[in-house]
Amino acid sequence: MVSLTLEGVGTRYGRKQVLADVTTPTITAGTMTAVIGPNAAGKSSLFRRIAGMASGPGEVHIEGVPSGEQALAYLPQDTNATAVLTVFESVVLAAKQGRSLKVSEEELRDIDSLLAALRITELASRYLSELSGGQRQLVGIAQSLIRRPHILLMDEPTSALDLHRQMEVLGLVRSLADERQMIVMIALHDLNHALGYCDHALVIANGRMHRFGSCNDTIDQHLLREVYRVDGHVELNSLNRPQVVLNAPIY
Ligand SMILES: Nc1ncnc2c1ncn2[C@@H]1O[C@H](COP(=O)(O)OP(=O)(O)OP(=O)(O)O)[C@@H](O)[C@H]1O
After folding, report:
1. What is the average per-residue pLDDT within 108-129?
2. Nearest CA to ligand 1 atom 6
3. What is the pLDDT of residue 173?
4. 135 touches ligand 1 (CB under 6 Å)
5. Does one domain contain both 194 and 237?
6. Nearest 5°: phi and psi at 4?
7. What is the DSSP string of 112-178?
8. Where is coiled-coil annotated (predicted)?
9. 18: Cβ below 6 Å to ligand 1?
10. Is the domain of 149 the same as that of 226?
């Protein structure tokens, strides 16, 4: 089983340290962890550090990945697609990732079914440069999922999507996490998405880890007040699911 453990992890840009002291229990296969916290707290910096794209103190322990398989994929917040490629070509390239460019029938079928699951089949032959922001975000999600990583880092993957698409994509990622036993770490601003789809919450505030725990234990009125500076609470809605209700910002 694949696992991910962070031990005193921080991120540095040049000599400037923007994140410190992120320590988690062992995060196990098939779980989704919401990485939450205010703007500029350090969520993307944590992802960049885990993905090996930034340096910093501490240790990122990844265990149990069979050799030859993709350990990790990182879907950044801004996927500025400027390459002269169609949607389908860009997903093929993501799937191959520098390996032989021979594409098997099975790989083509995988790509077709992923595009269908994301409901972007009709975009397959369109150029990336012709897509809307939300459509580009869906293609980025396809590119990260087609690699079948054991650990997927998704930085605000639904920020450009409409409500229907947000639910559809988060539901798909949740079911793939379960089916493929993939570890998903997902930065989210909508705490109801964290409560609805994730197991754990890793709270980052002011460049440090504030808390790690189950979403239900972690997302409460104290978090809203102390970390987000908003007055609000969590209640069970008419569907018997926990839901954040916001009242007003605190100054
Ligand atoms: N390349 C960089 N060089 C220097 N500082 C950076 C760099 N990237 C980010 N920072 C700084 O690091 C801090 C954390 O930024 P980060 O992008 O990790 O925050 P975030 O929690 O993802 O924010 P948001 O919710 O707004 O996306 C910020 O103060 C930011 O200005």
Report:
1. 95
2. 13
3. 98
4. no
5. no
6. -135, 130
7. HHHHHHTT-GGGTTSBGGGS-HHHHHHHHHHHHHHT--SEEEEESTTTTS-HHHHHHHHHHHHHHHH
8. none
9. yes
10. no
Q: Which pLDDT score, from 0 to 100, does residue 80 have?
A: 66
For the Cβ of 11 lying below 6 angstroms from any atom of ligand 1, the answer is: no
Model-level pTM? Answer: 0.95
**Looking at residue 66, what is its pLDDT?**
95
- Verify that 114 and 131 share a domain, yes or no: yes
Kindly report the protein residue whose alpha carbon is nearest to atom 13 of ligand 1: 40
* 208 shares its domain with 233: no
Asked if residue 15 has its Cβ within 6 Å of ligand 1, the reply is no
Residues contacting 127, CB < 8 A, separation 6+:
84, 85, 86, 87
Q: Is 42 in the pocket of ligand 1 (CB under 6 A)?
A: yes
Query: Would you place residue 99 in the very low, low, confident or very high pLDDT band (cuts 50, 70, 90)?
Result: low
For residue 139, the enclosing domain spans 3-219
Residue 54 CA: nearest ligand 1 atom is 1
User: With contact defined as beta carbons under 8 Å apart, do 188 and 34 qualify?
Assistant: yes
Q: Is the pLDDT of residue 216 over 70?
A: yes
What is the tally of structural domains in the chain? 2
Whether 64 and 116 share a structural domain: yes
Shared domain for 161 and 226, answered yes or no, is no
> Which tokens in the block code for residue 186?
């997902």
With a cut of 90, say whether residue 237 has pLDDT above it.
Answer: yes
The predicted pLDDT at position 116 comes to 97
39 CB less than 6 Å from ligand 1? yes
Is 176 in the same domain as 245? Answer: no
Q: Is the pLDDT of residue 100 over 80?
A: no
Asked whether residue 120 falls in the same domain as residue 185, the answer is yes
